[in-house]
Design goal:
It is a single chain. The chain is an alpha+beta fold and 195 residues long. 63% of the residues lie in helices and 14% in strands. The chain is built from four helices and six strands. The strands form two sheets. The protein has a three-stranded antiparallel β-sheet. A hairpin with a 2-residue loop joins strand 4 and strand 5. Helix 1 runs antiparallel to helix 2 and helix 3 packs antiparallel against helix 4. The longest helix has 45 residues. It is elongated, with a radius of gyration of 34 Å. 6% of the residues are buried.
Length: 195
């Protein structure tokens, strides 16, 4: 059922309930008028009618609160559903990261050889694989040597004496590339920091 149809159904139900409440109020008022003519004690009946009107108003308030709670529930669940769709393939992506790492290492080693055709073939496969993962939302976390270390987005695996004073407290080497799926980091980059 579409959102418009769903909203239309809810609005029609809401209108029907309000219409029934209004009819009930009208019936109570009509009964009040009839009883006022029949009884000499009209003041007692007016107070009784007021009590009934008050009860109907309380029920109407309960209904409106319940309806508002239901609307909030719908919004919350649709937001959660969107989040689930964004990260549904997270497990598959995490499983593919070691394969991507192996491809990167293979390319580095093949570049050392003299066989240009082999290098070109592996580069084509690597590019196709990387682009496929990128199209599914996988992006590398940008980290370079000399960047300031941030514990929120980097994972320091060791700390070595800084080769120069400007690298103290900064990233000296990137051991393993980090990746994110959408806005969520699924693997933190492993780095070596200088002290």
């Amino acid at each position: 059922m579409t959102k418009k149809a769903n909203d239309k159904d809810q609005n029609s139900v809401k209108d029907q309930v309000e219409e029934n409440i209004d009819k009930a109020i009208e019936e109570v008022e009509n009964e009040k008028a009839e009883k006022a003519e029949d009884n000499d004690n009209a003041e007692e009946e007016i107070s009784e009618t007021d009590k009934l009107k008050e009860e109907v108003q309380k029920e109407k308030d309960k209904f409106l609160r319940l309806f508002a709670e239901f609307e909030n529930f719908k919004k919350r669940t649709s937001k959660e559903r969107l989040e689930l769709f964004k990260t549904a393939n997270q497990d598959v992506m995490i499983a593919m990261l070691p394969v991507l790492d192996d491809f990167d290492r293979a390319l580095i080693e093949i570049k050392k050889t003299e066989d240009k055709n082999l290098l070109k073939g592996v580069e084509l496969i690597h590019t196709k694989f990387s682009e496929t993962l990128k199209n599914k939302g996988l992006e590398p976390v940008e980290v370079n040597k000399g960047d300031v270390f941030d514990a929120d987005i980097h994972e320091a695996i060791t700390q070595i004496p800084a080769p120069s004073d400007d690298l103290k407290g900064k990233i000296v080497d990137v051991v393993e590339q980090g990746y994110k799926l959408g806005e969520r980091i699924i693997r933190y980059p492993k780095v070596v920091t200088g002290k």
